[in-house]
Prior knowledge:
Strand order of the largest sheet of chain A: 8-9-10-5-11-12-14-13
Distance between the termini of chain B: 36 Å
Distance between the termini of chain A: 58 Å
CATH architecture of the largest domain in chain A: 3-Layer(aba) Sandwich
Number of domains of chain A: 2
Oligomer: heterodimer
Strand order of the largest sheet of chain B: 8-9-10-3-11-12-14-13
Strand content of chain B: 15-25%
CATH superfamily of the largest domain in chain A: P-loop containing nucleotide triphosphate hydrolases
Number of strands of chain B: 14
Largest sheet of chain A: 8 strands, mixed
Number of strands of chain A: 14
Amino acid sequence: MSTPDEPIGFGESDIAHGETLLEVDGLTKYFSSDSGLFAGINLETDQFPPVSFGVDQVEAVDDVSFEIKMGETLGLVGESGCGKSTLGRTLLRLLDPTDGTISFKGDDLAEMSGEELRQKRSEIQMIFQDPQSSLDPRMKVGQIIEEPMRAHDMFDDEGREARAKELLEKVGLDPRHYNRHPHAFSGGQRQRINLARALSVDPDFVVCDEPVSALDVSIQAQVMNTMEELQEEFGLTYLFIAHDLSVIRHISDRVAVMYLGHIVELAEKEELFENPQHPYTRALLESIPVPDPRETGVRGVLEGEVPSPQNPPSGCRFRTRCPRLIKPEEYDLTDEQWKHTRAFMRAVKRRTFEPMTAPEIRREFFGGDTPRGEAGEIVEEAIDLIEGDGEYQGDEDDEREGWKRATDLLLESFAERSICAQEQPAYELESELGTGTHFAACHLHR
Amino acid sequence: MSSEPLLRVENLKTQFFTETGTVRAVDGISFEVYEGEIVGLVGESGAGKSVASMSLLRLVESPGEIVGGTIEYKGETIFDLEEGPDGELREHPDMLSESEMRERIRGREIAVIFQDPMESLNPVFTVGGQLREFIEINRELPKDEAKAEAVRMLREVGIPDPEDRYEEYPHQFSGGMRQRVLIAMALACEPNLIIADEPTTALDVTVEGQILDLVDDLQDRYDTSFIWVTHDMGVVAEICDRVNVMYLGEVVEQAPVDELFYDTKHPYTSALLDSMPRPDRTVDELEPIEGVMPEAINPPSGCRFHPRCPDAREVCTRVHPENLEVDQAEGYPHRAACVKHDVFDVGYDESVPLEKGDEAETRVGETGSDENVDSTVEEGQASTDGGKANEANQTNRSPNRDGGESRP
């Protein structure tokens, strides 16, 4: 190859703006939680033979489907541990998917391997969170930017240098910095070097994994503005992974919200932020501290913690914390009674209160008036079990027995019988704002 | 305004003496904390907020040293200097001794919550054990009472099933739960003041919400004062009563929270607010602050923000503004360190606005270059009378121009 006449944007893409660039279907990534020699063998003392086989699986990403259009920015937001980074890496085949397809320009990346996959990587690039550790401190900036081009055999030495210098300028750095080492740059500038490196092979698609989270607010804005300019100029498509909803709102065209390995909601930006349809998205939006002291809206605080991805809840994975868990159909409860029962069930499960007498429990959780009918009987039984627990003055382990039985009883009778526990939700809704579709994984929309 | 402040800080200076020069991490800050209020200390990384808060407890370690100023807590002197017979500065005789600080002040009167709860808890002892020991020593309770108190505190900060979790180790707690443990520890001696150093920064947004709610709730019940160190203007708006904005070792604006957001008096504060993406509305165009924060080893002459300031004029390169009262609000002063306000009267209105070209050194992407450090010096010489800052500029040209990211 020779020196290009038009160094930037040389490979014209064959996909028009707005057409589907990447389509992910049923993508799943499980990790085995243990990887030693005997990892698959578990000792079980209560059975014969006293061993069992099988590896615990961490369901990091489970059955995720979406598509990304040419030239758009898809924001992927979620809390730590929800699987957003794993999803990003699996898309690039930095991790091997357990199941599902990743169709990029019509080719299934999940099926590719070896040289074919390596070649394909010139079209998909990644930017990492930590601008410090993603740059080799012993290499000069020029070398860092040229390395991907060398790996893909693009241009000769002079051509690569010319392109590296041009890219430095494009990302807002001085081309004279070509011979410096990364340590001479601030965090924001290092992230620009990362950008230049990713763009050197003229990719169509860039996965950005928390690219601005390590930066100060004022520097964040600079880098985001540059990323937007580059997108415009080179027709890039971004998957922008972040935990910060403000950043996501600023940079994205469409937004996907992840919770515990599932995408729970996906819609155009304005629609998602102004008309959120999943209780988790609402909770997230309500939790952000708004930089406005006159904003007095109530903070919607989510109870409890994210369950372990090793053993995620059935059905909707958010149901164990959901403030709108749907009442099981077999019980005849008013909304108010169901609210009380649900709160009581969760308080028992999390043991947030001291053992107390039955009247006290009734007063505390039900305003003195427990529901009637079948549901009422179950509640009364649980109250009795807990009350018995408080009186029992014996061995520590036995003391907890009644409480444990009450927890199991309540969960089996209520939580497990809700539609939320029985079916995995997935609904397409009409958008109120904008024209796109609105995906919400919540049975409230059934 | 209630009568006497709980804590009064005046002209506090903390410096780090390094091989490449003196880092003026905190350079003459003054503020007060009154009973029952949450005072914010806001700024970007490298602004000196953490050093300032650690100085309050005299917890600055070598090569750092508090070199000047006064810190008074409830009428007692935590730090003060006086002039000795030979004109040298020495510690004031009223100053609390190290053992008094340790036995009476730290933990009992002023407690700290750090950003990273994993580093503040010892991984080889149980959570409950650590909390119990802390209560046992500081409140001089017998072991069993201390244990009961520890369990009570754990329940108080919302840890489910506290008896069982008392026996667990820190790694078995999630980040939010660990932060709750630290809050329990800080509250255990019912201190009057808690210094919270970015306590929610490492947490997820829903967990952050839980912790902010908890703090709100506990503050109502115990009437504790807080110094809340953060970089997040959202958190500031949510919980602070009054705010100090720090830039490069100085407090540049001090105001009640509503004033700070709605009647902003310092260009840095405005720029910070304009550069943030918002969660509650879509901002089409962010206005970033140009350049990066310079190093505290080598601060710009005059106003330290002038190389990045959109309102900068020639006078800003010469005159170093004090943090003066420019307005009153809710009975508290609104102070700002910007000469564009009338109280300064240094001829800002007549002064020539700085050309964009003069600020070449702050242009995005050029901050890392030696050539541009040179141009800073040249520009500085043209516009100043060759003060200290210029000498520092020439002698301390650090090979590692790490912008605002470096910490002392």
